[in-house]
Amino acid sequence: MPNGADTHCPYCALQCAMTLTPAATAAGAVPAPEAAPAPPLEVSGRDFPTNRGGLCRKGWTSASLLRHNGRVTEPMLKGSDGVHQPISWDQALMLITAAVKDTQQQYGNDAVGVFGGGGLTNEKAYLLGKFARLALRTSRIDYNGRFCMSSAAAAGNRAFGVDRGLPFPVTDLDTASVILMLGSNVAETMPPFVQHLQGARDAGGLIVVDPRRSATAAFTSDGGGLHLQPTPGTDLALLLGISHVVVHEGLADTGYIEANTKGYASVVRSLNAFWPERVQSITGVPATLIRETARRLAQGARDGGSYILSGRGVEQHVDGTDTATAAINLSLLLGLPGSARSGYGTLTGQGNGQGGREHGQKADQLPGYRKITDPAARAHVAGVWGIDESLIPGPGLPAVELLKSLGKHDGVRCLFVHGANVVVSAPDTNAVIQGLRSLDFLVVCDFFMSETAAEADLVLPVTQWAEEEGTLTNLEGRVIRRRRALTPPPGVRSELWLMARLAEMLEAPSTFSDDPQTVFEELRLASAGGLADYSGIDYAMLDRGEAAYWPYPVGSTGTPRLFADGFAHADGRAVMVPVTPSKRAVRSFADDSLALATGRLLEHYQSGAQTRRVSELLASQPQARLLIHPGTAASRGIADGDYATVTNERGEVLCRAELSNSVRPDTVFLPFHFPGQENANRLTEAATDPISGMPEFKTSRVWVRKAVSTQERVPAGTRLPLHVKEAS
Amino acid sequence: MSERIVVVGFGPVAARLIDELLPAVRSGLVQLLVVGQETEAAYNRVMVAELGVGRTTPEALAMADASELEADGVEVRLGVKVKRIDRARQNIVLSDDSTEHYDRLVFATGSRPVIPNLTGLNPDPSRPVLPAGVTALRDLQDAAVLRAAVADGKRVVVLGGGVLGLETALAASEEGAQATVVHNGPFPLGRSIDRGSGSVLINSLRAGGVRVAGNARSTGVETAGPGGSFSALLLDDGSAIDGDLLVLSCGVRPRIELAEGCGLPVATGILVDHHLRTYHEPHMFAIGDCAEVRCPDAACVDCRTAAGPSGLVGPGWRQAEWLAEYLMVLARDGQAAADALEALPQEKPGVVVLKARGINLAVAGDNQADPWDEELLEAGAASGRARRQISQWADPEHGRYVKMTTRGGVLEGLVAVGMPRTAAELVVLFERSSELPADRSLLLRLDGPDQLDAGATSNDPQRTVCRCAGVSAASIEDSVVEGCSTVGEVSKATRAGTGCGGCHGDIKGIIEKHFQAAAA
């Protein structure tokens, strides 16, 4: 049917443009019976401002999943023997309807929950929010973006009155002379983005804050810039130290502050206690580097442009919102946001991490980035949906709380999971698995038998990116089109179709279309007048290649750059909120514990549910490896390549050690893409930021030792056979 | 009626206490009166020397805003002194003869500079009248005096080789004054550091333009300058050090006379227990420089080794935070609940990091032992406790020196000069009582140029040239051998260079190398 398409990569928020064309099949080639089928489409990079034709390995190999052997192509019901068996869609829909009704009759409407994902299209994310509230009649909906963007979002809303990851096109970075990257490793997470750092590198102005000498931090060598290597959990103090220097050395842009902000005086007072030498004692970053950073940022703001970009490294903490706020305060002191050649932004991670956080997938939110507690917002959305406002439930629970409530009294008993693999990606996964197993009914929509799908009573096969139409909103707040290049396998359905059928069976009010364009037209109306206003955007203009940045009210031409005419608070001013590190006692490490930071590898995306099934990527990074400093390893008798156990009160990980002086001696690093005994999130704690609900992913306290027994080395039930089968 | 807390003193420690109590004031749980002797609300005293050399502004030093506090319901009385305390009636009597009642009283009176006993200086410590051209360095007025001298490029003599003295002399020198440090003993920072670091430090000071007069015992000041102002510091060997301004940096002494005057037990500071309560008077407290935590229990192990007030602000802030919580619990839930709070943990020995541009120095703990100094190494090593160990690095030619004193692998003392990364790591390790890597030289190499190198260009054919697409040098070479002669062609054949484009130069290099070899 379709003959290829211009679309975008299925993975991260850079949304690199790509063209898919039908693959040429080698005549007469007979694939070996065990081999994976050849990809039906060929991927090529397409020129676009974010990626300029570039793709990384994940993008290049993305088509190999479309006809992958492991693909789920029929609804699968788990039998009493624990084995999933195919059933018909009609049966599946009946089962779900019955489960929802039974659960709600017994425990109330909020006993049914929905867990969404930041990879879903705008249309799906929007409809999922509506489906939860009107068809399932529950407040219990949240999504995995809570683990990614929530802290930066909360800080952005508090300071600017709006949260758009980059409030400027990414190409603005090209001319910057200084870019401060806070806990972001783009060289691995979105490699084509690195092109936009070249100008700053050439100017010697790339400054990377990361406890690890990441691939991005390594760009600062040879005159590229500076690498600041704070001990984990001290980013906030470091930012206060840099801000302190800005204030005390007279580097602040007082005219800008006077005209555009409020709260300056209280922030100055709060910074006083963080002089560079004191901050050095807290962070391990030499005072000279703290001063140098402040001066370069100020110099850049005057001369060529300075940008501050934050990433998950500084945000995924229990004080993530305050840390992002400290970064914003620094940018406001320097007069960056809203200026022509400088700015502040956060780098959104998931493919639709931006759009996915705008249209009602969040527990406290309605479409258009509206608050669910705001009466005017409720009235507007109820009007668009053609229902009585009272039918919209109130705010639900943020992701970590939602997961903690699974199977509990007053908790969720029946859960829908869409585009998320919480068994790998949520904090404290052992507890998450227990929660999932205590559910009365678990429905998981996925294209593969992910680790979470494997726990499900019912797995529903859904379309992949190249098989569907829709829109996503990239890290710049630009709305882009995803286009269908391939007919999905016969048993596979779109989630829009699923929600429309279920809404019908559950006798939901309002209407539920399974056509993406129709859903988008409704989203336009629902978002109109909201912060994230899409009302002026339609498929036709996107198909013409127009660059549509929200807010894009009807009759406007969109907003490539926010804040040029002030901030989104009523008085037009940005709010500077004083923040200080929490008074949690400085942790003693006297007992030879180490700080565990989790993170990513270039070859894998998120929980790895997709990329671990791409043979080329798996071959390159087949397993989790614990990065450990040679000195730290030596005192534990661990040699390069040895198996090591990483333990704490929540769980244990067994994996190979890789010795590297790229990590600090007090820190170990473990990628979180891997399941089972290599799953880093067995060790992370479900403690959350009080404002954003963001969990702590970067400073778990762990003990590392050499694995001793051979049983540990080849444990029963290892995931390896699965890989071997699927990857071969 | 909610209870009334009176805070005597309005320095940085009092400011932290008030900040922490603000929620309770706003909610009406407590009433709060703060009395400050200076006319300014709290400011950051730690940076007074920076202000004195013009590196910051008085506005930037503010740590509290009186009118904002008043808007929050805090009573603020500035420019008045507490004359005495009537413990029986629970009243304070102010210098304007008004009285104020208290339910709880917190001494945050801080400390005052020590005025040395020199001929020409009034020895009365509580009312020193200093001649023109002689100043301590404690408040904004002192900073203004120094500022004027530095701005005019005057000769500044700093008496005292402590941290503040060194910081002042270095900064003044860097900002254009001619600075001399006069200290007793063979090197500055006397008891905190050892001979090796002391020698390197002196060299570094001199390299920074500071004159250093060691082993000096000063006896008096000469006031032969214009209008009877300071002209020289006189030493006991009969010599004199000429100058235009004498900065007295001879340490500080807790301000305890108010507490002493109302009969509270004092030692160096006001004696308080682990709940920061004064002896026998549980509704009076002391925090910060004026407080000496040493409980009345003679058997208390912590207090046997407790030192007096450290003069550092960090412990004071921790006390303020702890006391605020105690006072709030007390007001809300009563005495039993407050007493159930965990007592304030004992402070570790303070870490000093010299606030200086030209010199990097960090020092903490005990640094007196040398690697083969059996007596000192064995000290404290009894009943299974490990003995001390020393690791040391000295490179005086390049101004670098490090000594780590450990017990069981954990730092008991550290001193690092001229090695910023090493110093920063050691301080973090010390603060956290973390075990050092067995190979201590790892810590010394942090400042080495090799640490900054991401990956030297290697000729390993299996090395990854294009990270984005994961393409090795060998694959690129193969594609060149098979006919690719441009970066574009190589990209098409191998995907190398199709991500961030950062490796285009490397690919070009491989192509050129191939064709050069072919031509040769």
Can you walk me through this structure?
The complex is a heterodimer of chains A (728) and B (520). Chain A is 29% helix and 18% strand. With 728 residues, chain A is of the alpha/beta class. In chain A, the strands form eight sheets. A seven-stranded mixed beta sheet of chain A has the order 5-4-18-17-16-6-7, with helices on one face. In chain A, a hairpin with an 8-residue loop joins β1 and β2. Chain A is globular, with a radius of gyration of 25 Å. About 1% of the residues of chain B have low confidence. Helices cover 30% and strands 23% of the residues of chain B. Chain B starts with a strand and ends with a helix. Chain B is α/β, with parallel strands linked by helices and 520 residues long. Chains A and B meet through α10, α11, α12 and α23 of A and α3, α10 and α13 of B.
Reconstruct the topology from this structure:
The complex is a heterodimer of chains A (about 725) and B (about 525).
Chain A: E1 5-8, E2 17-22, E3 41-45, H1 57-60, E4 76-78, E5 84-86, H2 89-107, E6 112-116, H3 122-135, E7 141-143, H4 150-160, E8 178-182, H5 186-189, H6 198-202, E9 206-209, H7 215-218, E10 225-228, H8 235-248, H9 254-260, E11 261-262, H10 264-271, H11 276-283, H12 287-303, E12 306-310, H13 312-315, H14 320-333, E13 343-346, E14 365-366, E15 370-371, H15 375-385, H16 399-404, E16 414-418, H17 422-425, H18 429-437, E17 441-446, E18 458-461, E19 470-473, E20 478-482, H19 495-505, H20 516-527, H21 539-543, E21 548-549, E22 574-575, E23 594-599, H22 615-620, E24 625-628, H23 630-634, E25 643-648, E26 651-659, E27 667-671, E28 685-688, E29 695-696, E30 700-706, H24 710-713, H25 720-727
Helix pairs in contact in A: 2-19, 3-19, 3-20, 4-14, 8-11, 8-12, 8-14, 11-12, 15-20
Chain B: E1 3-8, H1 12-26, E2 30-36, H2 48-52, H3 58-61, H4 66-71, E3 75-78, E4 82-86, E5 91-94, E6 99-101, E7 104-107, E8 111-113, E9 134-135, H5 140-151, E10 155-159, H6 163-174, E11 178-182, H7 195-207, E12 211-213, E13 218-222, E14 232-235, E15 240-242, E16 245-248, E17 252-254, H8 257-261, E18 270-272, E19 277-278, E20 281-286, E21 291-293, H9 301-304, H10 313-333, H11 335-339, E22 351-353, E23 361-365, H12 374-378, E24 388-395, E25 400-407, E26 410-417, H13 420-432, H14 441-444, E27 464-466, E28 471-472, H15 473-481, H16 487-494, H17 504-519
Parallel strand pairs in B: 1-2, 1-7, 2-3, 7-20, 9-16, 10-11, 10-16, 11-12, 18-21
Antiparallel strand pairs in B: 4-5, 5-6, 8-17, 13-14, 14-15, 19-20, 22-23, 23-26, 24-25, 25-26, 27-28
Helix pairs in contact in B: 1-10, 15-17
